[in-house]
Amino acid sequence: MKLDPIPANPSDDPFDDDFDIIEPLCAVFRRALKGEGLKYTPERARILDTIIRRDGMFEADQLLEQMRSDGFRVSKATVYRTIKLLEDASIIQRVLFDRDQSHFQLAYGKAANTLLVRMDTGEVEAIEVPELIALRDKLCAARGLKAEGHRLQIFAVGE
Amino acid sequence: MKLDPIPANPSDDPFDDDFDIIEPLCAVFRRALKGEGLKYTPERARILDTIIRRDGMFEADQLLEQMRSDGFRVSKATVYRTIKLLEDASIIQRVLFDRDQSHFQLAYGKAANTLLVRMDTGEVEAIEVPELIALRDKLCAARGLKAEGHRLQIFAVGE
DNA sequence: GTGCGTGCAAAGACTTTGCACGTAC
DNA sequence: GTACGTGCAAAGTCTTTGCACGCAC
Predict the structure, then answer these.
(1) What is the mean pLDDT of chain A?
(2) Interface check B149 vs A, CB under 8 A
């Protein structure tokens, strides 16, 4: 994929009002930015909105392509920079199951560190596994360590 | 890291006889290569041997550096090409917990899919967690799926 | 108005590939 | 002797960064 120069924008104003129809997360992001002395820009709002609409795993340039096909002017650099901010704000999290590219998913409000990956359909579902915390803490304690987090990916197929 | 040109070789003959002191895995690799009509070369033997001696997680250029400091002439390209062959032969497996680089580990004979990553020291230990299989199978069964594999990373610090 | 943000191009980091020469079989 | 392998350099990908202009606060 090799698209850097931004194509002309079909709609004149890239900043219109329905970009934040999903209020809560935008508010979270806004607050996080303000806390760092950073600004809530149309581009950042759009990017988060696009992520929310996708509602699934995404890659940086999927996001870029989708935004462009939706008629938004955004640069690759801004997408990457915003992804980093969203990660810092714990609104999205990096997944890492493909060696070529980083994948991300919404993470806010859930500790989505267990993924059920369907190898036949490609679907990825974030699931809750409370038992894992106990298991992980036990394993660490047995070695004199303190668990700070974990990540589990389960690969499955329908039967 | 930026070292491509191979430095002059301290020992004249890069191919001496103790490169395959650990017989079994070399034999496995040799057989796998023969099966594909490929050749068992000194470089390939050395690379596998170096991996076995390390006995832990490794990255492509760690391998390269170690081989060079051991006095072997090998190129980056050959290391990458051989890693791919070893992966195909299921002798090593790719780990993916760092977004910058692929990590690998010996895979032959064990299913090392749980990693304990020490965030303070950077150490990574592959551990066995039999309970995980049952847990994972249960989660899949509850959704009408069949588990094919899993991968767990636990992040911890000393206390 | 100031300082952060954006787009663009270029640089970076890891990995892959084309080519000519060399070697395992 | 032939086909595969190697080293080197260059190209490829994904991601990051320097810079000048622009906008949110």
Answers:
(1) 80
(2) yes
